[in-house]
Amino acid sequence: MKDWITVGKKDSIQYECDDNGILTIQIDTTDDLGPSASGKTIMLASSGGNQKINVGSPANGDAWAYLGLNLYRYPEK
Prior knowledge:
The chain starts with a strand and ends with a strand. The chain has one domain (about 5-75). With about 80 residues, it is mostly beta strands. Strand 1 and strand 2 form a beta hairpin. It is built from no helices and eight strands.
């Protein structure tokens, strides 16, 4: 497995892709980025738009894909 690579707003998303092409995403859900732009939700993680990520391996070479991810929750009432 590769080392974890960090992307997104405030480095809120970590990922790695193994030699078999399995992408694993790791997010700390105990931390948050604050309110969304609309203020209706609390952002836990965001790629900040589509991020170009390498899902290749040393054995097979680079292979590029795009990740777009938002993880959010509604505030408690």
